[in-house]
Amino acid sequence: MAGLKRRYHPLQILFELIKLIKTAAAFAVFLFVIKSGSQSVFITSGRVIFFLIVGASLVFIVLKWFTHKYELDDTSFHLYTGVFTKSKRTIPFSKIQNVKYHASFFHRLLKVTSIRFETGMAEESGTVEFTVVSWEEAAELEAHVTKTLDEERSVDCGTDELERNEQAGNRVIYFTPTKKDTIKASFTSLSFLVLIPVIATLYSNINDVINVEEKAAGIFPYILSSEWIVILVVVIVVIASVVFGIARTFLKYGKYEIAADAERIYITKGMVEITSFSVLKARVQAIEIKQSALKRLLGLAEVKLICAGSFDSEETADTSSLYPFLPVERAYELVAEILPMYQVTPEMARLPKTALPLRLLWPGWFWIVATGALGYFRPAVFGIEQSWWIFSVMMLLFLIVHRLLAFFNARYMLSEQFIQFRTGSLSTNLFVSKRDKVIEVAVTRNVFQRRLGLASIGTINRANPVHHTGVNDIPVEVAVTFLKWYMARRNEIEVE
Amino acid sequence: MCVQLNVPQKRLSKDAVKVWLIREAIGNSIWFLILGVTLYLNHLFSWKEWIGWILIGIVILSVPFTVWSFIKPFLLYKNWRYDVDEEFLQLKSGALIEEYQLVPMTKVQAVATTQGPLLRKYGLYSISIETLGSSHGIPALPKEVAIALRNQIAQYAKVKEVE
C-alpha cells in the first residue's frame, strides 16, 4: 500500500453522479415540468444554462476521478487534488484524532462505505475522506494508520510491543441494547410524535398535486357522526405512531455496539445506515453525562465523548455518544470500564448559600421586557382583562423555579487530576475532564460576586469547535484553588 | 483573590489611555454625526412622527454611553495586568467584571504584533496571541516591550505537549 499513488474507488463517479442528479432535479423539475409551456427568454436561457452546467459537471466528475489521487507512506497521507490547479496535501497520521465510517443506504446497496480520518483542524482540509471505498480497503486503511500510530506510541511510552499488540487485539463488546432498551429508548425520545410532522408534510405534498381537502370534505363529518368511529380512528392513529416510532428507533439505535480494546473505543450504530466511530482512549478530551428531564424521570442518561476531531454535523451529531439511553448506573459503570483513566466522582460540592440571593435577584431581562410589553399592550386573552399580569406572574414564577432548580442542581468537584461540573435546571449536564486535557482556564467576578466572595470559573477543551464549560458563583477560595490546580498541570503533561 | 496568588503585575503603556480616548472621540463623533444627519433629514422631510420619537430616544440613550466611553479607558488601563513565564500566559482585566485567564504556553499557536495609525502615533504595538481554543490580545505596549514579549512568547511556545 505504501509509496504508491492510487486513484479512488471507481464507484465514486457513480456517487458523484447521484449527488449531481439530486441537486439538478429541483432545477430540472422547475425548468421542464412546471414551466414546460413557457417560452420566456428567462426560462429558455435557463434551460441552456442548465444543460451547460450539467454537461460541465459530468466532464468534471470524470476528470476529477482521473486526477485526484492519494498515497500512503509510513507516516502520512498524501492527497493530490485539482483538475487544473494541482495541489498536494500531506496529513501525518499522528495528527489524526478519530476515525469515522459512514455507510448510507446507497453505500450498503453497493457493499461499500465511506471513511473519514479527522484531525480536529477547523477547516475541512484537515480531514482525509474517502467517500467511496470497499469495506476491506477501509479496514486496511484504518489498520495501516493505527498500526503506524501504535508503533510510534509504544516507542514513546517504552512498552513492550508484543505485549501491547496482544492487548490491542482483545476487542471486547461492552454494550449492545436489548429489545427492552430500544423500546424504552423509543418512548424516551418521544419518537412516536415523529409521525405527526411526517404525515403533515406528506399531506401538504399530496395536497399540492390533488386537492385532498375538497375530496375529503365529506369524511370528517362522517367520522365525527359516530363515537365508535372516532375511538377507532384515534386508536389506529396511536398504534400507527407508536409502531412507527419504535420502528424508527430500532433502525437508528437497534443495532448499537460499544466496544473497546486496550487502546481504542469503537461505537457502531444503525441498521440500514451504518455509522461507526473510533477514537484513541488517550485522545478523549472530556466526557459529558447528559440527562433530559424525561431521562431523569426514567433514570436514563447519555454519555458523550468529547473528541478533538469530531465535527458535530446534523447527520453525525450523536456518533461520539455512547448509547443515549443508558440506565444511569450502567452509564457510570461503562465509563469506568472503557475509560479507566477517567474517574467520575458522584460526591460533589454544592454552591454556597450566599449565591442563591444573587441568582434570584439578578434581573431577568426577558421577563422585564416582556412585562413591559404586556403592560403596554394589555392583550385580553380569552376576554380576561387581567390576563396581562397573570401572564407576567406566571413567567416570573417559571423564572424563579428555573433559577432555583439551576441553583440546586449545580455541583462542582476538583480532585488531583479531574474536574467536574454539573449544570442545568430541568435537564442536567455533568462534565468531567482531566487537567492535562483542559487547554485554557478563566476566572471571572462581577461587582456583586466580589462583594459576596464568589467567582465563576470556566474551562476550554479541544473539540471542533472548542468546548466551553464552567460553573458560576462558587466560593472565591475554590476559584483560587482552581487556578493553582491548573498551574500544577506540569505534573502530568509530557513535552515533546 | 489577589493575595493568595502571584497575580500578574506587568501593566500596559500609559499612552494606551490617550489612544483609547482618541479612538472613542472619533467613534463618538461619527455616531453623533450620523444621528445629527438623520435628525436633520427627519426635520427636512417630516417623516412619520414615531421615527422622530425613536431618534430622540436613541440620542438620550447615547449620552450615558458616550460618558461611559470616556471613563472606560482609565478603568481599562488601571485594571489591565499581564505576565508570561515558561509555562503560562496570564491575563487579568476588567473593572466591573474582572477576568483572569491562564493560557498554557504549549497551547499557543501563533503570536503577532500589530499597529494601527493611532498606536503608531504613540509608538505602541498590540499583541495578539492565537491558541488552540481562542485568541487573546494585549492592547497597547511600548515598541521594545511588545517586540521582546512577542519573541519571548514565540520562544516559550516552541515547546509542544505530547497529545
TrEMBL record, chain A:
InterPro entries: UCP026631 (IPR014529), YdbS-like_PH (IPR005182). The keyword Zinc does not apply. Coiled coil: none annotated. Keywords: Membrane, Transmembrane, Transmembrane helix. The chain crosses the membrane at residues 12-34, 40-63, 187-206, 226-247, 360-377, 389-408. Residues 65-144, 259-337, 408-486 form the YdbS-like PH domain. The keyword Transcription regulation does not apply. PANTHER family: UPF0699 TRANSMEMBRANE PROTEIN YDBS, UPF0699 TRANSMEMBRANE PROTEIN YDBT. This is Putative membrane protein. It comes from Evansella caseinilytica.
From TrEMBL, chain B:
Keywords: Membrane, Transmembrane, Transmembrane helix. The keyword Transmembrane applies. It comes from Evansella caseinilytica. The chain crosses the membrane at residues 21-44, 50-71. The lineage of its organism: Bacteria, Bacillati, Bacillota, Bacilli, Bacillales. The keyword DNA damage does not apply. InterPro entries: YdbS-like_PH. This is YdbS-like PH domain-containing protein. Residues 77-153 form the YdbS-like PH domain. It holds the Pfam family bPH_2. Coiled coil: none annotated.
